[in-house]
Structure formats: structure tokens, C-alpha cells
Amino acid sequence: MAPYEPEQNTSDAGELRAGRRKAARYVVPIAVAGVAAATIGLVPALATSGDPDLPKVTAQELIEKIAASDTEQLSGTVKISTDLGLPSFGGMTGGFAPGSGSGGGSEDGEGSSADPQSKLMELASGTHTLRVAADGPDKQKLSVLDNAAEYSLIHKGDDVWAYDSKSNEAYHSKAAGKAAGKHGDAGKKDVPKDLPKDVPSTPKELADEALKAADGTTSVKVDGTAQVAGRDAYRLVIKPEQAGSTVGQITVAVDAETGTPLKFTLTPSSGGSAVVDAGFTKVDFGKPDASTFDFTPPKGAKVTEADDAKAEKHGFKGDAKEFKGEEGLNGLNVIGKGWNSIAELKAPGGQGLPTGKSGESGESGDVPPDAQRLLDSLGDKVTGKFGSGTVFKTRLINALITDDGKVYVGAVTKDALVKAANAAH
User: Fold this and answer.
1) Which architecture characterizes domain 8-314 according to CATH?
2) What are the domain boundaries of the chain?
3) Which of 151, 209, 271, 408 is spaced 20 to 30 Å from 366 by Cα?
4) What predicted TM-score, i.e. pTM, was given to this entire model?
5) Hey, how many other C-beta atoms are within 10 angstroms of the C-beta on 330?
């Protein structure tokens, strides 16, 4: 194993350090909290072998190497696993199943099963194998493989196509917008309008999200070496220094030659297996074949245009710009900093959770008794200066919903959420 430098605080990294993650990234509906978790987690599902003997580097030098990497051409296979510790709901929140119709598929007559808004969010649970390819900022392809089917997302020039082979449905939209920065932004220069913006799917994107949280509240060190997908790599270990975070440790395997992150693993502060694990099992930094990014809808495929899908969803055939806005970010306030950042906002409608009873007589309330029992089993009742509420927990993202309609959410413990709610009252 190669030697490594003593632990360093990221405040020494100066301007090379990425800024604190945007508070809005913590503001997610509980139903898609796993998506936020996917920005900083993984299960050790990838095989590594050997400890290559590499030149000694400091943590700052390795961060600089990541920042200076200009990899824009690559292809390979990525395996990603996410274990948030959520209960099974009989397929309601199951793993990715191309063509299953879940999350907005057309089997129920709504939308297209190829719509990437729902399909890519399903990467937040279970284990998935992805094929990825990139050739500069205008050509990228990501395919999610299933036993007998494949879901592909292809960006080439001004066009973005998504195709679900199982349902033989395609979804087409136009690329729009320019994202800042160059490293790791292959595929982000022209961001497809209809893609979920916070669903990283490669080790590089996951590493970027982790480093954004390194704002002087984090220790970073180089902890030996590893071999991932046949490549020699350094192991960069990132640990929160604040108490109260659900993040225990993040390990990033950084390619020794190119500076490209090859594997990303997050373990929770509660211990046990990692929350998410994403990494290359095969990788090639050569130029992909040009035909990789070609796509024509197969004969008989149902093709949905993005603008038409939006109009149908809203029951509106006019100007789609009327639906723009930041719905759900009601009264956003950020409490704390770094890993302990907690987003405070108002629940939709300004009310707490629905209840199964109304008044002292016990007549039917907002939800059926069975549904109320399910809600009670998923959450922990808590009280404090703020009154009372319920904490919904995963192994990474936790959320407190108070009875008076306030929401506190972050990658922090239950006690940290209660403390923040008390301080806000």
C-alpha cells in the first residue's frame, strides 16, 4: 500500500475547494428523498484488487488533480447500489424496471414510460447496471440495463432521446441551457430541459456533490491506494467533523493517471453497510464510436414529445411558461452549515400530516385507518418547544414534519432535527 499524508482540513484547500452544496438540494419531497441520498452514497458492490504502489500525494494535491482533470471522452460500465433502509411497498418504491410503467409510465394512460423524470429517479433504490459513454459536451449516452430490457438516454447536439425497449416507447426533448464549469460537465453543457437536475449517476458527479459540502467542516485525507476496473487509483477519504450528521465517511477512488473518480462509497454514521456505492467495473478513456450516439425510434415505437407531455399533464394546450416556478419551496430557510445544514420550509397547504381521526368522536378523518397505521409505523412521534410532529427516517436523509405544517429536512439525525425545530420557535 502506498504511503499517505496525515489528515488535512479542507480549509487548507483554498480556492480549489468546492463551495457548500446549495441549500435547495436538501429541499426534496419525502417521496424522493432517496434521490437526494443518491448524491452522497453507495454500497460496496464493486470488486477491487490489489494495492498499487503509487507516488506519494497529499490530500490537497489529489483534490487539485480531480479539479484539473479534463476527461471528456470515456465509455464503460457502472454499477450503482443504494440502500436507504426503506421498507418494501410491494413494488410501489421498487427498483428500476424498464417498461414497468411505474413513476409515470403509459400503462396507466398517463405520460410516457420513457420519460426520464421518473425513470432516472428510480436509481435511488436497489442495484443497477449502467453503460455510460461521453464524447465532449454534446454527445452522451446512459443506458440502464435490466434482465431482458434496456432504458437509454441519448444526448446528441440539440436533441435528447430516451427509449424504453420493453414498452417500445420513446421520449424526445431539446437540449437547453449552459452549465458552468468544464470538468465533469460532459453532458451538462447542454442540459436536457426535462431531466431531473439532481440525480448524479457517475462517480465523478457523486464526488463533486461530496466535495461541495467540504467547507471547513470536513476532514480530507489520502488513505492508501486501490485498483478499480483495472486502473490504479488513490483513495480519498472525506469525513464530516460535525456531530449530528448521518454521513459517516465518503471514500472516492481517484484514477492516478487522469484524476477521474472511478468509485464512490458512502457509509452512514450509524454503521453497517454503505448507503450507496457507485463505480466503474469497466472503463475506457478512448473516443467512443460515433454510432454510439445515433438514435432513431424503432418501427412502431410510440414517440412522445416533451412539450406535448407537459401540456397533457397539466391539462393545458397553451403557453407552457405559465407552469414555471418553484412550487414546494415555501418560505425556505437554511439552518446550520456544512453537513449539518437543515432546510426549513412550509408543508404544502401549510398543514401537518393528515390524520385518521377527526375530533373527539373518532369519526373518519383525512386518511383510512390502515393508511394511518402505515404512517405511524414509518415515523417517530416527537415533541418539543415547537409542539409535536413526526420524524421520517432513512439511513441518510431524515425529515421532521410538525403538526403546524413546518418541515425540517437534511442529512442529520432525529435529535438534530428536533433541536433545529426548537430553536426556530
Assistant:
1) Clam (2.50)
2) 8-314, 333-423
3) 408
4) 0.71
5) 15
